[in-house]
Amino acid sequence: MEQKTILVIEDESNIRLNIIEILEEENYKVIDSSDGESGLEKAKEFLPDLIISDIKMPGISGYDVLRELSKLKETRTIPFIFLTAMVDRSDFRLGMELGADDYIFKPFKMKELLSAVRTRLNKHNVIIEDNFSKTNSESEDSESYQLLDKLLIRINGRHIFITIEDIVFIKADNQYTNLMTTSGKTFLMRRAIATWEEQLPENIFLRIHRGTIINMNMINKIEKIGGGRMSIRLKDIDEEFIISKRYATKIKKENK
Description:
Helix content is 33%, strand content 33%. The protein is of the alpha/beta class. The protein folds into two domains: 5-132, Rossmann fold; 144-254, CATH 2.40.50.1020. The strands form four sheets. The chain has a five-stranded parallel β-sheet, with helices on both faces. It has a five-stranded antiparallel β-sheet with strand order 11-10-9-13-12. Strands 6-7-8 form a three-stranded antiparallel β-sheet, covered by helices on one side. Helix 4 links the parallel strand 4 and strand 5. The protein is elongated, with a radius of gyration of 22 Å. The N and C termini lie far apart (51 Å).
């Protein structure tokens, strides 16, 4: 079984350290933060399997962290558990409206915390597995699965959701392919360009070279570069993408 990663955001060091100790004893990999700002950045960087966060902290609150993560495609589906000493009904309602999966009220017992963690991780796994069985007939070794408008990819044993339209380009890199998203994140995967071409919707993605697929919605301009060749510039990307003659005619038709 793959080791799950949990991010703990808690400004009270004794509580945070106790949680870390208990989770590590249960074989979870733990990342921690003592404030909301750094917790938000670590969530974006590490894409944990679950987040446990205090609500009231110096700087931005746990609500703010969840609100910001809910805006990002890569983090909006991460299970989120609040730790809180507040018992006001309006506080509870706000958290649920923002998308919190559970509340644990301070003071709490560690077995209560572990139970909530297991429940949320198991529920998340069931959703993933159900989507696999309903939408895919690929082998268990496949690194990606298409779920309606999302792509579920497996990186280093972990599953990450990517909205298909957020893929900027996919480029061959020796035996791998390098996928870049609009957020600037890149993912290196052992998957052939031809396989990507078959899987991605042809009304959005276009193969411009034997080793490159681009998102047509991201095209900034097409340029002639001499010798009868052409190149493409994508929005907010410095790299120039060469168009092979084989695909040039098709690209001209798509961009008339």
